Amino acid sequence: MIQAFNNYFLSGFKHASYFERRKASYLLYILLAALTFIGITTVGQVFGQMGPFYLAANLIGLTGVSLSIAFFKHKKINAAGHVMVCSAMFMVAVETIVVDLFNTDPSIRYRLYINFSSLLGIFFIILSFFREKKYVFRYAAAFELILFAHAFVIYHQINQVPNMGVYVIEHFITVSSGMFIVAAIATWLLSHMEALFQQNMEFAERFKAQNEQLEKMVAERTNDLQSSNQNLSEFAYIVSHDLKEPLRTISGFVTLIKKELDRQGLKDEEIEEYMNFINSGTKHMERLISDILTYSKLNVAEKNFEPVDLNEVIGLVKKRLAQSIYESEAELYVANTLPVQGEKVMLGQLFENLISNAIKYRGTDRNVKITIGCTRELNTIRYFVKDNGIGISEKYYETIFKAFRRLHSKVEYEGTGVGLAICKKIVERHRGDIWVESKEGEGSTFWFILPYAQTDVPAIQPEVHAN
Fold first, then answer.
1. Which of 152, 82, 86 is nearest to 119 (CA)?
2. CA angle 61, 62, 67 (to 5 degrees)
3. Is 456's pLDDT higher than 60?
4. Confidence band of 391 (pLDDT split at 50, 70, 90)
5. Region 386-392: what's the mean pLDDT?
C-alpha cells in the first residue's frame, strides 16, 4: 500500500538522480505531515467551537497544502513549496492578528510566542523546499512583518493596562531577534553550501575537461595504433611474399644444379653437402617467415568469437600432424573437453603448436605420451597439454614465451623460436593466461585459461586415443 502510494506521487521523479528522488520523498512526507496536522486542528477547532475565523483560516491552509501536493505530483517543487508556505503563513496571520483584534484578554501578549513558534516551523519548511538565499530573506522579512503587525495589535489592545505595553515591546524584540538569528544562521549555512556546490561544479567541469582531453588522446592513440597495426600487417605480408619468392628460386636452382651434376656424372660429396645446407637454410627461412607472418596477423585479427567444440579442433589437429605422430609413435590421450568461446582457427593453431612441440622435444629413452584435459572454473576453462619429454628448467619458464628465444640449437631441434610466442598471443587474445610447469628430464605441462562457452552441448569425454 505504502509502495503504491509512493509510486503514484513520486512517478515523475523515477528518472531523476538518487539524491533528487530521496529529496522528493522527504518533501512529500513534509506535505503529508502538514496536511494531517492542519486536518486534525481543523476538526478540533470545529468541535471546540473556536469561531468562524479559525475555521476559515484552517480551510485556507487545507486548500493550500492540497494544491501543493497536486503541484508536487506534477514535479513542480518550487510552486508546491510557495503555495504551502504562503497558505500556512496566511492561516497563522488570520488566527493571530485578526482574532486578536477582537480579544482584550491581557494574556494575549504571550500569544506572540505562539505566533513566533508557528512562523519558525514554517521557516524550517522553507529551508526544506528552497536552497536559495533570496527566498530565505524574503520570507524572513514577511515573518518579521507578521510579528510586528501582531505585536502592534496586542499593544493597541492592552497598552492601557499598566506596564503591559512595555512587556509587549520587550516580547516583540525577543521573538524578532530570534527570527533574525535563525535567518542569519540559515543564510550562513546556505552560503557555505553554495560555496561548496560552486567548488564541486568547478571540480566537475575541470574533471570533465580533463576526461574529454584524455578521451581525445586515447582516440588519437587508438587510431594511430590501428593504423600502425594495419601498416605492420601489410608490411609483413609484402615482406613475406617478396622474401619467399627468391627463396623458392634459390631452392629450385639448387635442385636443378644437383640434377645437372648427377647427369654429367660430376657427383661430389662436399658439393652435395653444401647444397643440402642451402636447401636446409631456405626451408628454415620459409618457416621463419611463415611464423613471423602468423605472429603479426594475431595483433590485428578480428575477434570473431563463437562457441568452439575443442574435441573437433583437436581432431583436426591430429589429422594435420598425422605424419609426425606416426613417425614418432606418439600416444595422444584426450581426457575430456569443454566448449570455449573463441576463434576456431586460432585455437587450432594453439593446440597444433603445443602438440608438435611435445613431439619435437621428446625424450630418446621413452615413447611420446601426450595428455590433453580441462577443468571448469566459474566462467573459464583451464586446459592443459602434458607430455613426458625432456622438460624445461624453471629459470626459463618466462623466456620460452618470448619470440626468437630458443633454449637449444637448430642442430639439436628444428624450429624458429616463435611457436610458444604465438601460443601466448593467441591465449591473450582470448583474455586468458598461459604458463608452464615442468621438471628437466620428466616432461612439461602447459596450462592455459580460455573463456567458457555457455551452450546446451554437454561436456565431451571421448575415448582414449592412442597413436
1. 86
2. 100
3. no
4. confident
5. 87
Residue 302 has pLDDT above 60, yes or no: no
Q: Which residues pair with 308 in a beta bridge?
A: 340
Identify each DSSP E strand in 272-410 by its residue range: 306-308, 331-334, 340-342, 369-377, 380-387
Q: What's the rounded Cα separation, in Å, for the pair 89 and 91?
A: 5
The one-letter amino acid code at 458 reads: P
**How far is it, in rounded angstroms, from Cα 251 to Cα 261?**
16
Rounded alpha-carbon distances, angstroms, from residue 114 to 51, 108, 242, 307: 18, 10, 100, 77
What average pLDDT score do residues 393-411 get? 70
**68: exposed, middle or buried (Cβ count in 10 Å: 0-12, 13-18, 19+):** buried
Q: Which residues contact 431 (CB under 8 A, 6 or more apart)?
A: 451
Contacts of 410 (CB under 8 A, 6+ apart): 284
Provide DSSP, 402-445: STT--SS-TTTS---S-HHHHHHHHHHHTT--EEEEEETTTEEE
353's grid cell: 603448436
d(CA 29, CA 114): 24
384: pLDDT confidence band, cut at 50, 70 and 90? very high
Percent of the chain with pLDDT over 90: 3
CA distances from 422 to 149, 313, 381 (A): 91, 17, 20
Output DSSP code: residue 458: P
Q: Are 226 and 234 in contact (CB under 8 A)?
A: no
Q: pLDDT band at 463, cuts 50/70/90?
A: very low
Return d(Cα 406, Cα 410) in angstroms, integer: 9
Mean pLDDT of the chain, nearest integer: 77
Which residues sit opposite 439 in a β-bridge?
A: 443
Q: Count other Cβ atoms within 10 Å, centred on residue 320.
A: 13
Run of H or E residues at 123: helix 111-129
Report the C-alpha gap between 371 and 389 in whole angstroms: 12
Sheet holding 331-334, edge to edge: 331-334, 369-377, 380-387, 443-451, 434-439
Given the candidates 3.90.320.10, 2.30.250.10, 3.30.565.10, 3.40.140.10, the CATH classification of the domain at 303-451 is: 3.30.565.10
Where in the chain are the domains? 2-211, 303-451
pTM: 0.45
